[in-house]
Amino acid sequence: MEEKRKTYIPDVERGIYDIKDEENFGFKTNSGLTAQIVREISEEKNEPKWMLEARLKALEIYNSKPIPTWGADISGLDMDHIITYVRPNTDMRHSWDEVPEDIKNTFERLGIPQAERESLAGVGAQYDSEVVYHNLQKELADQGVVYLDIETAVREYEDIVKEHFMKLVPPTDHKFAALHGAVWSGGSFVYVPEGVQVDIPLQSYFRLNAKGAGQFEHTLIIVEKGAKLHFIEGCSAPKYDVANLHAGCVELYVREGATLRYSTIENWSKNMYNLNTKRSVVEKNGRMEWVSGSFGSRVSMLYPMTILKGERSQMEFTGITFAGEGQHLDTGCKVVHAASHTTSNVNTKSISKDGGYAFYRGLVKTTPNAENCKSTVSCESLMLDNRSKSDTLPIITLANDKIDMGHEAKIGRISDDAIFYLMSRGIDEIEAKTMIVSGFVEPITKELPLEYAVELNNLITLEFVGSIG
Hints:
Layout: E1 7-8, E2 25-28, H1 35-45, H2 49-64, E3 86-88, H3 101-110, H4 112-119, E4 122-127, E5 130-136, H5 138-142, E6 146-149, H6 150-156, H7 158-164, H8 175-183, E7 188-192, E8 202-207, E9 214-215, E10 218-223, E11 228-236, E12 244-246, E13 249-254, E14 259-268, E15 272-274, E16 277-282, E17 287-296, E18 299-302, E19 305-308, E20 314-323, E21 328-331, E22 334-337, E23 343-352, E24 357-366, E25 373-383, E26 389-397, E27 403-413, H9 416-424, H10 429-445, H11 450-465, E28 467-468
Parallel strand pairs: 4-8, 7-10, 8-11, 9-12, 10-13, 11-14, 12-15, 13-16, 14-17, 15-18, 16-19, 17-20, 18-21, 19-22, 20-23, 21-24, 22-24, 23-25, 24-26, 25-27
Antiparallel strand pairs: 1-28, 2-3, 4-5, 6-7
Helix pairs in contact: 1-2, 2-8, 6-7, 9-10, 10-11
């Protein structure tokens, strides 16, 4: 009997995410990375001298550090062919009506203006290397909340930015943190004063349109004592036949008794190298919540880190990773218990299909003085065929014995019996698989903001529509 053949459509059209705009930039650097290019970026931004000096120092560090070889294979990334700065042909606007039509249409397709009207207190929209739109509700501004693009913050809140910028993630941290320090552009600055409760989320969306370019946005958030904030980050890019690079940086400061939730969906195209760095520090009785979705990209290496610095501080990380054909998504999180009575809870799920590789890499570390801490880590992996791979590498470093530590990992395949049962009830194979995977990720989906939960379900559907048989 002839073996049943499977037909596979390798590149699923991702609808609105893969629509490309014609390039219409105001300025861009040459490809590659030199001191002259770094100076050009700084000059374009009319930066203070200290920032230029910091960039040039970071460039020196970048050139001195080797390319990391312990994670995903990034040998296909050649910085000589990456354009590090592309300024769109517009200044930043505070009304969508003033944004150039082609750029506005891109964000309209992505649903950003609609989300702002319906459910957000403020929005920032970055296109290539610069923020093109920014707005904050007047009520929050009247309470002292500051939400700006980071370039404006460097000018208007220079002392605060200088005190915190790349202090949590110094350029010495790793090669791509140094790269970020040299060529960063765009991003958000948020400051929430003591006791202010921001009940409606703020959102920044980063869209990379330029072919063969990099995006290096910097996000700096400070939530003061007893304050509360939910910040949402979205990312996407169309697919090209050359490598693109994302090496952003996120620094989060959660003061005493404050709460910060940071939700993100990274939906890059499958020619993207996603080498992002995110880190938070949490003071006494503070709480840090991460909700993270990693999709798209050819390679991801992303491990949001939380330093529980103050007594009774808490961290919760909820993450989902979906790796399809040609993807190696090396993701996870890190937590350092640096004070007593601190708590961390990690819950991750990963899915791999069509030969994709989902790798969880996590770290839980306690310091000698961090007694009576509690940490729980749960990792679940679902492989949808016999070509896909999934691994879990938990690293646990305990420096004292007064700790409650638990780790659980499960790896399995989608059940043929469950598929057969659903098909016997008149549901076709694609829909049956989609239903099972949607159920698997439901605990993560319910933590996402509504529009991103819908986006996640749409992405899952797109992946399965591309598989026949």
